[in-house]
Design brief:
The chain has 247 residues and is mainly α. It is built from 12 helices and 2 strands. Helix 1 runs antiparallel to helix 8, helix 3 packs antiparallel against helix 4 and helix 4 runs antiparallel to helix 11.
């Protein structure tokens, strides 16, 4: 069976929408049900639209506190389902610093500015860049960090998190994995991220630890098709007493 492709504006719209839905569920996002349903209805890829519809079915009918608590427990308190993509491939090593710098330089070349303190490998930021810059250079970070994306997708699936639907929607628009990709992902799942100065358990174990990365400011875009090239990216949630920054 031929897998439907997502091209042009439709592809950008998919990445933009998933970028928004992966941000912290603040009042503005939770109150945008009508806009979110309309945006999902415009997604042309059948599988991606189905996954997004399933996510909204939970997101728009669940108690606010339950959603907020689930978000923090899923993305902030478990390293194996964190939103910082370079961590999966590089762990807390010097190579991660280089990878972060490379991402920041790529964004700068396209006129995108990060919010102060925001890390460039945060998945919502990577997805926004893919939406704005488009196929090719814009989606290069997603392709380069596909292993991390797949590990995150797997972790969310194992945890039966509703956020798994967003990862399924994203990968539905990406090229199929090669056998070499699958082998590398399996190896990384067993061995865990590289270790330099911080000892970490492999992804095969259930880790409940403070996720890497600082607290960031929240911003919700109400116009899903707007051009954000002149605005700073801002995606995560306000500081929480239970959350700490990684080294």
């Amino acid at each position: 069976m031929t897998v439907p492709s997502v091209t042009g504006p439709a592809r950008s719209r998919l990445f933009d929408l998933t970028s928004i839905l992966l941000t912290y569920p603040d009042d503005r996002l939770l109150g945008a049900g009508t806009q979110l349903r309309a945006a999902v209805a415009e997604i042309t890829h059948p599988e991606a639209r189905e996954q997004l519809t399933a996510f909204l079915g939970w997101f728009l009918t669940t108690d606010t506190l339950e959603i907020e608590t689930h978000y923090v427990r899923t993305f902030d308190l478990r390293r194996r389902s964190g939103l910082y993509l370079t961590y999966y491939l590089h762990g807390d090593t010097r190579k991660r610093g280089i990878a972060l710098l490379t991402l920041k330089q790529r964004y700068r070349a396209h006129g995108l500015r990060l919010t102060e303190g925001e890390l460039p490998d945060l998945l919502p930021v990577v997805l926004e860049f893919a939406a704005v810059a488009g196929p090719g250079d814009g989606e290069a970070p997603l392709r380069q960090h596909r292993r991390g994306l797949e590990l995150l997708r797997s972790a969310l699936g194992e945890a039966a998190s509703p956020y798994r639907h967003l990862l399924e929607a994203v990968v539905a628009a990406l090229p199929p994995l090669t056998e070499a990709d699958r082998d590398a992902i399996r190896a990384l799942a067993v061995d865990g991220p590289p270790v330099e100065s911080v000892g970490l358990a492999p992804y095969g174990t259930d880790i409940d630890a403070i996720g890497p990365g600082p607290d960031l400011a929240t911003d919700f875009r109400t116009d899903f098709s707007a051009d954000f090239s002149a605005e700073p990216c801002a995606h995560a949630h306000p500081a929480s007493p239970s959350r700490e920054s990684a080294p």
